[in-house]
């Protein structure tokens, strides 16, 4: 759970950042709005991720939410306040860029979900490289219930879970529990709420102990090969492994393994 009281008020940052032991934790900080993805919040998160991508000291990123929810999706009040085609187009382009950034920054990104994650909030969970949730967390793509099909969340959801499971969530719009989210592959594990911080910290710590170069190579390769057919994927992966073998960190890691000592990464 998030035990740290959120900073609330007009002057409070929309995204809180804490760095520790190579892990940057970014906390969505609109608890009064269930961390709905306003234009401002998406902009603040985009800026943090862009900065982290260039920061070689950060090995892993954790996304969390302040208050009772992880993220309730787009800010519907903000959207309805400006019912203009250009504004809607700009909003969804901004959101798509944000989701692509989560996938494309060099560091693995972990979603830590303690409460509801709905619509674009569910999209954010599906987009993250790993996701852990409290056993009380719930997930939904409920846009169909209000006449707005979750088309952009569908992109991430349909790539994270099976086709039938994705369509059931999209067509019914029902909340699903943590156990079901694990079963369909939306999240990696569901744990008791009082264990969530420890589980995420452990996973992020293990990632942060790896070669940052290897993590960046692997993450980029994963998302590129998954969109290729099998023959093209193997050809691409073979090229990636060849380049990886020529890296100093690969040489160090293999030598350390053969010599039965801990590796010392240089990030090259």
Distance between the termini: 36 Å
Helix and strand element order: EEHEHHEEHEEHHEHEHHHH
Q: What structural category characterises the helix and strand content?
A: alpha/beta
The helical percent reads 40-55%
Approximate strand percentage: 5-15%
The number of E-state strands comes to 9
- Domain count: 2
Q: Give the low-confidence spans.
A: 1-5
**Number of H/I helices:** 11
The CATH architecture name of the largest domain reads Alpha-Beta Complex
CATH superfamily of the largest domain: 2-enoyl-CoA Hydratase, Chain A, domain 1
Profile the largest sheet.
6 strands, mixed
The CATH class name of the largest domain reads: Alpha Beta
The spatial strand order of the largest sheet comes to 1-2-3-4-6-9
Arithmetic mean pLDDT: 94
The geometry reads as: globular
Mind telling me the C-alpha Rg? 19 Å
Kindly report the CATH topology of the largest domain.
Answer: 2-enoyl-CoA Hydratase, Chain A, domain 1
Family: Belongs to the enoyl-CoA hydratase/isomerase family.
Pfam family, one: ECH_1
Function: May play a role in fatty acid biosynthesis and insulin sensitivity.
Keywords: Fatty acid metabolism, Lipid metabolism, Lyase, Transit peptide
